[in-house]
Amino acid sequence: MSQNHQRGVSRRSLLIGGGAAVAAASAASFVMRKKIKNFIDKRTIVASFSATPPLVPHDPAKEKTSLYVGRDGGPAANVDSAVSKLGGMSKIVGVDDVVVIKVSAQWWNQGMTNVAAVKRAIEHVLEIPGFKGEVVVFENTHFRVPDKKPDDPARGLTRAWSRPSDRNVDVPGWNKLGDLVPHFAGLGAPVSFYGLVDGGGSDLADDPWYDPEHAHGVYGGDDRGPIAGGDARDGYHWDFDKVFRLRRSRVAHAQTPLTWPRFTSPKTGAVIDFRDGVMRREKGALAKDGRTLRFINMTTSNEHGSTGFTGACKSPMGIVDMSAGALGNHPRVAGYQSVHYFGRTGRPAAEKDPTWRMAGPLAYWNNQVRRADLYLTVAEWVAVTPTTGYNGEDDMRHHAACAVKTGHVVAGTDPVAIDAWCVKHLVAPVAGKYKDMLALDNPDAKVSRFLRYFRQVAGWGTLDESLVTVV
Asked: CA-CA distance, 140 to 270, in Å (whole number)?
């Protein structure tokens, strides 16, 4: 080998080696800058991030609302009563409409929507004279069955769908939310069921979630990521042009991308885009179907450690993609918070974090994606922490010691008014250890902060009792 050739190899090696060294140095510098920013972020949290939101003044001419209450008749009869008082389901649903009913199914017992109430609500839609539409019952439990195909509607029918419950079923011979599926299939009714699955993976996938064998689903999405532009597949949209953002520290913001699902009716093949409405597939593309999408949100009424209360306002947490931010591990959401972690700061004293700030991205979602046409808060059972606490073998959302039977269904179109009424009249009166966070008359209570912030961001929602008529 010639001396010149040897010099060329050496020169090339030097250039390659130098380039690698520069790249390594750049990577190390990036990591160091990120660590420094995170360090400063945690230590310079601005006071406004934790400050109690103002109570935005009400406009009596625009913000009067009515709540329709069924009580003490059992869950199915309470649905009958509430729906009758509002004037019947035909006040909400047209004969040709596609109706999506969102239930709460991540937890069982008092943590899930009562099964008899869901059954009866579906029947009210089907009983509309001349009804020619269809019903799709759905939920994102944020869990999945790993061995089912990505587009299998049953892939996300996990947790309360498959796990038997001791309470909150109330249909003879049934023991879980999933018993609705064969029942309506056997009737040949235009009713189907779809379990949404997040688009990205999660660092929490291995957590036992009170189901150590993962018999009822594994937490986290399927790693397909968001739906790409022009792609007609089912999944989740992640919109980074519409990000809900709030100053958290001197160097950083809390920020959450807007997300919403698209899924296909197992019964008819109608495509439901939660923002854009009912569509159909034509030669690989999507076209408007022409029918109206109606959204009924059936939720629970429970104490919640992060927001004080979980009910109508918080229930879209079961529609958004929880992998689109921390603790999701998809590379596109680095630096973002998922909705549930929006108020987290990463500081050691996490219990002082304004976790109620998640009301902001939830309110933003309502305005940007879709508000429910009807809320049915089913409070047959509520969950509260007893004064003496409980042994921790189960989550409070299904622990027997935390279950209180209240026997109510509350219907309406204003989730803020519904939540405030349920807190004041159903949950706070039976609260124990954490009753202070449910004190609506205290502006600094966690539930007050949550509902005030939801109202502030949404620009609507009634907290003034004098504007609420209870029927």
From this structure: 19
| pTM for the full predicted model | 0.92
Angle at 335 between CA 330 and CA 338, to 5 degrees: 70
The CA distances from residue 102 to 44, 112, 124, 145, 377, in Å, are 40, 11, 15, 20, 11
One-letter identity of residue 290 = G
* CA angle (362 as vertex; 48, 302 as ends), nearest 5: 100
Residues 6+ apart with CB under 8 A from 69: 81, 82, 85, 408, 409, 410, 411, 470, 471
Q: Give me 380's structure tokens.
A: 């047959």
**Chain mean position to CA 182:** 26
Tokens of 229: 């532009």
Q: Quick check: 259 pLDDT over 50?
A: yes
Task: Please compute the mean of the pLDDT values over residues 347-374 and round it to a whole number.
Answer: 92
Contacts of 315 (CB under 8 A, 6+ apart): 102, 104, 297, 299, 415
Q: Which residues lie closer than 8 Å to 244 by C-beta, 6 or more apart?
A: 255, 256, 258, 342, 360, 361, 364, 457
Token couple for 335:
């630096």
Residue 128 CB neighbours (<10 A): 18
Please give the backbone phi and psi of residue 385, each rounded to the nearest 5 degrees, phi first: -85, 120
The answer, yes or no, to whether the previous bond of 86 is cis (omega within 30 of 0) is: no
Contact indicator for 338, 325 with CB cutoff of 8 Å: yes
| Phi and psi at residue 405, to the nearest 5° | -85, 125
Q: Dig out the tokens for 100 from the structure.
A: 């999506």
